Amino acid sequence: MKYLTEFRDGELVQKLVAEIRQAVTRPWAMMEVCGGQTHSIIRNGIDQLLPPEIELIHGPGCPVCVTPLETIDRALAIAAQPGVIFCSFGDMLRVPGSERDLFAVKSNGGDVRIVYSPLDALKIARDNPTREVVFFGIGFETTAPANAQAVFLAQKQGITNFSMLVSHVLVPPAIEALMSSPTNRVQAFLAAGHVCSVMGYWQYEPLAKTYHVPIVVTGFEPLDVLAGIHRVVLQLESGRAEVENAYSRAVQREGNIPAQKMLGDVFEVCDRQWRGIGMIPQSGWQLSERYRAFDAAARFKVQHVQTRESPLCRSGEVLQGLIKPNQCGAFGKECTPRKPLGATMVSSEGACAAYYNYGRFIALESIPG
């Protein structure tokens, strides 16, 4: 706890805010990519401490939120099959599919289990050789190494009743897609420190150069976030566009090389659909040919499910940074954590959940459309 409180020191926060106020001379819009950073910003009121010239745009960095609807519906179809033990992290159970969620499948008799690691699911498969055990493998680069290891061990140990429904997404292609969009307003990025702890930040350097956009690797505590914002402001004000590491206690430029080797063996890059955003080329991982036998979507033949999004939900615009959650007409009305229309309202990293849970109910002027 001692080391956490050091990064929440109120006096240091006020000092850093004062330095940011002194440095900024004109309006700037920057995006925090990670949903964990969004929750830290809203929970600690960081956006309300900043000078009015700085706008924080909430990005698509919630892995639960961007998991495509068709993948959710595939998970629901697999989990409902007899003889299947479907394992998932807890934050996926309330994510709405076209008609229901995993809790509904469980209440109707499906064997849906919350696990804390893909290796827990592998042990369940080892202990239940007559059952098919499926793990729901989602997330950004942060969670991918453990998922890759589970598949690697399943093959090595000959555990054939284990498979994985994979929906991994990658941050750099998402940044490129945002910067290439005609509706883009983002002038700088706060990059997610935990992603960079795995992959490093060398991949961001071509993006900073191509789009002339500052990218600062940032942690999650209040002082981490403010330090990242301060560095971004200094770059913007001076006309620089570089990659900086403001999270050196956890991140190195080259990242975690052994983890990257494991990822390169088990996964291969593919085009990926992002919920609410659409297809982003080369923005995901799927199981490589060597491990394709562990692909749950192919094993259970659920590749071609039909999907249906709520017409009221504007979470796609939230994920693209086009609107704030409380600019959606359904926010806090038709859409609440108890009855969500989209994943952004139930995920522990969702922007809509952050606004709802921390009382940001003040209605903003709604954007038409």
Structure description:
- The chain contains 17 helices and eleven strands.
- The chain is of the alpha/beta class and 369 residues long.
- The protein has a single domain (1-358), classed as HypD, alpha/beta domain 2 (Rossmann fold), CATH 3.40.50.11740.
- The strands form two sheets. Strands 4-3-5-6-11-10 form a six-stranded mixed sheet, sandwiched between helices. The protein has a five-stranded parallel sheet with strand order 2-1-7-8-9, sandwiched between helices.
- Helix 2 (10-23) runs parallel beside helix 13 and helix 9 (144-157) packs across helix 14 (257-266).
- The termini are far apart.
Write the layout of secondary structure elements.
Elements (H helix, E strand, L loop, with lengths): L1 H4 L4 H14 L4 E7 H9 L2 H4 L4 E8 L1 H4 L2 H11 L4 E5 L13 H6 L3 E4 L3 H10 L4 E8 L4 H14 L4 E8 L1 H10 L7 E5 H7 L5 H7 L3 E4 L3 H17 L4 E3 L11 H10 E8 L3 E10 L8 H4 L15 H5 L31 H7 L12
Parallel strand pairs: 1-2, 1-7, 3-4, 3-5, 5-6, 7-8, 8-9
Antiparallel strand pairs: 6-11, 10-11
Query: What is the level 1 CATH name?
Result: Alpha Beta
CATH architecture field: 3-Layer(aba) Sandwich
Helix content: 25-40%
Question: In percent, how much strand structure appears in the residues?
Answer: 15-25%
- Biggest sheet architecture: 6 strands, mixed
Helix-strand topology string = HHEHHEHHEHEHEHEHEHHEHEHEEHHH
Query: How far apart are the termini?
Result: 46 Å
**Shape, please?**
globular
Strand order of the largest sheet: 4-3-5-6-11-10
Number of domains: 1
Number of discrete helical segments: 17
Number of strands: 11
Mean pLDDT: 92
Look at the helices and sheets and give the structural class.
alpha/beta
Q: Which fold name is given in CATH as the topology?
A: Rossmann fold
The poorly predicted ranges are 363-369
Radius of gyration using CA atoms only: 21 Å
CATH superfamily: HypD, alpha/beta domain 2
